[in-house]
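This part of the workshop introduces the protein records we will be handling. Getting from the letters to the C-alpha cells is the skill we practise here. An example says more than a description, so a record of this kind follows:
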Amino acid sequence: MAARSAFHIICRLASPYRSRFQLSPFNLFSDARSVTYMPRPGDGAPRAVTLIPGDGIGPLVTNAVEQVMEALHAPVYFERYDVHGNMKRVPREVMESIFKNKVCLKGGLMTPMGGGVSSLNVQLRKELDLYASLVNCFNFPGLLTRHENVDIAVIRENTEGEYAGLEHEVIPGVVESLKVITKFSSERIAKYAFEYAYLNNRKKVTAVHKANIMKLADGLFLESCREVATQYPIIQYNEVIVDNCCMQLVSKPEQFDVMVTPNLYGNLVANTAAGLAGGTGLMPGGNVGADHAIFEQGASAGNVGNEKIVEQKKANPVALLLSSAMMLRHLQFPSFADRLENAVKRVIMEDKCRTKDLGGNCTTQDVVDAVIAFLD
C-alpha cells in the first residue's frame, strides 16, 4: 500500500471542527448553532458500516449503538457479521465488507490464552494496516474521580513490537519471543501523534519508552520521535521511561497531554489512564490506517466482560457510544457526532442513570433510553 501522509488520516479521525474531544460545560448546554462545515453535494448520503458485535458484552453495547443511531436518524446503516475470538481467522466475507466500506464498528473479541490461537483483534489491525490506535481518556463533568483535569490522548503504534507474534520454542522449556521495531513504523506513528496534537490544539507530546534497557529497539523508536519533533517546533516534546510513566500517571496525570508509545506500552498506558478518568466503560477509541478505520471501546481491559454482567444486561455502553461519535465525525457527519456526545454527557452529569461500574444499578437498556431522551 502506498504510504499516505498521516495528516490526511488525522483530518478524518480527529475532529477538525473543534479543539478538544471533551466538551466544555458551556458548549454542552449551548443552544446556539454554528456552521461546522460546507458539505459537497452527496456527502449526506447514508454510509455503510461493517458491524462486528463480538463476544461477551459486545452484542449488548453494539445493540445500544444501533438503537441510538436509529433514534438519531444518523446517515449510516450497518452490515452485521458474527465473528468470535475463538475463530482461527476473520472470515473472508467480513474482510471484504471492511475493504468495501472502509469503516467498521466492533465489540470486544476475546483472545484465548495460549494454545497457539492468535488474536483476531491483532489480525484485523495488521491486515488493514491500522497502524495508529487513539484512546481518549478524560474526566466527565459530574463524575467524581480521584484525579481532576485528566485529558489524555494515548496514541499507540499498532502493528509491530511485541505484538508481531514472532515466538518459537528454541529447546523444551526455552521460548524466544522477538520484539520488532522499525524506523518506518516509528516515524509514521510519531508523525501521527504530532499532527493529532497540532490539529486538536494540544500543547505537548510525550514519548513513552524503555530505551535505557532496550537500547536498540526502543532507542530506534525514541530517535524517530526526536527527529519528527523537530518538524513541529510549536509542540512541546518530552520523553518518559515507561515505569516512571506509570508512577507519574497515577500521581499526577494532568501533566500529560498527548502520549505516543510503542505497541505494548500503549496498551498498558491507555488502560491505566482510562482507570484514572472513570473506567474502561467510558473511554472511546479507534484504530486507523491510510484507508480503513475500526472504532471500538478504547481501553481493552474488561471490554469482553464477565458472564454476570452479560446475564444481568448491565454492561456500560458509554465507551462504544462515544466511539461511534468518533466514527460519525470520521465519516464527516460532525453535527450528529455532537448531538450524540452531548446526550451521553448529559446522562452522566444528571447522575440518575449509571451502570454498576459507575456506582449505579442501571441496565444497558436504561442507559440507552436515557441517552435517546436527551437527543435534541
Confidence is low (pLDDT under 50) at residues 14-26. The CA atoms of residues 30 and 154 lie 29 Å apart. The chain has two domains: 44-134+278-375, 146-277.
